[in-house]
Amino acid sequence: KSGERYLLVGDYHTQMEILTSLSRILGVRSPVFVIPSKALIVAIPFLAVTDILSRAKPKLTRTMVTNGLSSVFFSNIKSRQVLNWTPRHNLDASLAEAVRYYKETIK
């Protein structure tokens, strides 16, 4: 329909599922633990001070933590129902394609 919006996205995956899949594709060790969100929030001011003292680029900012902790869900249900659409690739295939692209284009 004119004026309608459809999200053509794959299935929902948690950040840990994405990181585990990406680790497998890259051949690196998968994350073994998750830092509790409250600990990250408390650590931000201390990290900022160490970055200022060492004149380093911030490794972790409040925005990074907030974005990482937010839960945003995108659904493709409308696209599947109205457009009879299905994703062409699963998570592993999509990430492998992205990794291949970045390896070829970013040196």
Describe the structure.
The protein has helices at residues 15-26, 37-54, 62-69, 77-83, 91-105. With 107 residues, the protein is an all-alpha fold. Helix 1 (15-26) packs across helix 5 and helix 2 packs antiparallel against helix 3. The termini are far apart. The mean pLDDT is 82.
Largest sheet: none
Principal-axis shape? extended
Number of β-strand runs = 0
- Which structural class fits the helix and strand makeup? mainly alpha
Number of helices: 5
Label this structure with key terms.
107 residues, mainly alpha, 5 helices
Task: Give the secondary structure arrangement, pairings included.
Layout lengths: L14 H12 L10 H18 L7 H8 L7 H7 L7 H15 L2
Helix pairs in contact: 1-5, 2-3
Quick synopsis:
The protein is mainly alpha-helical.
